[in-house]
Amino acid sequence: VDCGHPGSPPHAVVMGDKFTFGSTVHYRCLEDRALIGESTRTCQLNGQWSGSQPHCS
C-alpha cells in the first residue's frame, strides 16, 4: 500500500522518504515557527495518511 507524498505545508519540512503502509513522516517548522497539529503522520492500510496535515504559525 502506497500513501504517496503527504505534502509539505508552507514554512515546514517533511522528514521521511518512505510513503508505504506503516511508514511515519515527521513535520518540523522553519524559522522558529510553531507547529500547529500533529508532528507525525503514519501511512495506513487504506492508503491514507493518519490525522490531518499540520501547519506552522
From TrEMBL:
Where is the Sushi domain positioned along the sequence? 1-57
Q: Which GO terms describe its cellular component?
A: membrane
List the subcellular locations: Membrane
Predominant location of this chain? membrane
What keywords would UniProt list here?
Disulfide bond, Glycoprotein, Membrane, Repeat, Signal, Sushi
What SMART domains does this protein's entry cite? CCP
Cystine links in this protein are C29-C56
At the top level, the lineage of the source is Eukaryota
Q: Which CDD domains match?
A: CCP
Q: What is this protein called?
A: Sushi domain-containing protein
Task: List the source organism.
Answer: Cirrhinus mrigala (Mrigala)
